[in-house]
Write a structure and sequence with these properties.
300 residues; mainly alpha; 0% strand; globular
Length: 300
Amino acid sequence: MEIFNSSILYIHKPSNSNIGAGDLTPYEICKDMPAALIFYLILQFINLFLGIPANLMVLWLLHKNKGDSSTSDIFILHLAVLDTFFCLIPPLEFANKVFLTISSTWYVLRFFYGVKDSSPLFLSCICLDRYMAVLHPITFTELKDRSHRTVCTAVVWLFTLAYAVAKCVDNIPNFEKAFVVMLLSAFAFMLFCNVAILHALRQSGPGRDEMHPVKKRAFKMVLIILAIIVFNYFPSVALFPFQERFSQDEFVCFVYPIAFAFLDISSSIQPILYLSREKIPDVFCCCPKDQGSGNATNPS
């Protein structure tokens, strides 16, 4: 019997048409090459135990430093909320991929997957904000009241929830192509913004030790976004458009779980990279050197 006859058996977003009582679990389907699926599940549990506290710490720091906040903080805050939400699913996902064959849990998982699929949109908003700050500072200053950022955030969430519901229902033909298009578009946009920012910063004052605070903040943010793009998103961008070059077994049991493993671990890497540029309060440190220097401040 041909068991790889639908995109539903793709490890990360199975369709309700192929999962039901009596069917094989994803782990059983890939029993001859389970390494990639195991790797994927390991990274998902890293998200559970590392991503949740890291994202909660980001939310706490953003709240504590709201008097000295960046214009991009509203996007970082909502990205941390999204990632915290996604990091809750590993126990259900592990059970569903290894033990369960019922279709009802896939509805929940597909909704979570749909929410995570839209995270590049918030990263794109951060890139756009930094792009405007560096290359169009006058316009950026005029729009610094943040009202348009709130509107942008609301639009992204509306799209995210609509996308997640559509993915959960799973009654749209070839819907998985929407994710590929969104990922490729966001990747190209973020790459353009970051390359333009780096070029502008390099041209703004070569050889100078001091950098304008806005540009210094932008430069740090660009490094974070570039690290996320290269490590988390490039594998999917490089592999998904060439699905036809892989056998169906290879794509389902190796390419898909590996690509989504790198995509999903961004829920831990994004907050860690953000925290790496922040001064963490002594309350989170094991051996504080100075009890009077525990306030978290924005270094820029």
